[in-house]
Design goal:
The two termini are 28 Å apart. The radius of gyration is 19 Å and the shape is globular. It folds into two domains: 175 residues, no CATH class; 47 residues. It is mainly alpha-helical and 227 residues long. Helix 4 runs parallel beside helix 6.
Length: 227
């Protein structure tokens, strides 16, 4: 990946992050769209659209309702697709590594989004105080700053994910993380995802902790099978 492509994807990451909820909410951040755009940037539009469809299926069950926390599907798709499409042509696509990077980036985006919400909450308190003191321009300034803050955080999260994902790409070539995954690994990974994500929706308390434990065991077993 060239420097220009990296910069373009980082800027696009800022737009994707803002589209999740702070500004646009135009569906631009859906994996189908993000994967296709990543493919265009990396001169592999068809492959990008295919990976976008894969991650759309992975994150289709997300319900961003109210205060619910959820992975950032847009940033996850951006990082995962970029890693998958950046492998040398002489090797098989690093499927396992691309999915792992996407899942980690989704979790990172969740935490960054929560951080931004808390920061904006503190800003809102300050703005109310300024308006009460007669500064009627405070809301406009605060909104502009909040948008720049969100763009910077989105770009930063994208840059970190791309750096780690692409940096690790050379390490996984010619390993089980590169190329088609064994069916046993796919089954275990799916079981871990279903166990953990299902309990996040329907189970509370100690049962949820037990489910996380089962999911962790399945994840460790998956890593063991991959060698």
């Amino acid at each position: 990946m060239s420097l220009e492509q990296s910069v373009l994807l980082t800027v696009f990451g800022a737009v994707v992050f803002l589209d999740q909820w702070p500004v646009f909410q135009s569906m631009l951040s859906r994996p189908l769209v993000v994967g296709a755009v990543v493919g265009v940037v990396l001169d592999k539009p068809a492959d990008g659209a295919l990976w976008g469809a894969v991650f759309e299926a992975v994150y289709l069950g997300l319900l961003p309702i109210g205060a619910a926390r959820y992975p950032d599907a847009g940033l996850a798709t951006l990082a995962g697709s970029a890693v998958a499409l950046s492998a040398p042509a002489s090797v098989a696509p690093p499927v396992g590594w691309a999915v792992a990077v996407a899942l980690a980036t989704g979790a990172l985006g969740d935490h960054v989004g929560g951080f931004l919400r808390r920061w904006n909450g503190r800003t809102a308190v300050y703005v109310r105080e300024r308006v009460a003191a007669g500064d009627l321009s405070a809301p406009g300034r605060a909104i502009a700053i909040a948008l720049l803050r969100g763009a910077a955080l989105g770009a930063g999260a994208s840059a970190v994910a791309l750096t780690v994902g692409l940096g690790g790409l050379a390490l996984v070539v010619s390993t089980p993380w590169s190329g088609p995954l064994p069916m046993s690994v796919v089954v275990l990974a799916a079981a871990a995802a279903l166990t953990v994500n299902g309990t996040r929706l329907f189970v509370d308390g100690r049962s949820r902790l037990s489910a996380w434990g089962v999911g962790l065991v399945l994840v460790v077993a998956t890593f063991g099978l991959m060698g």
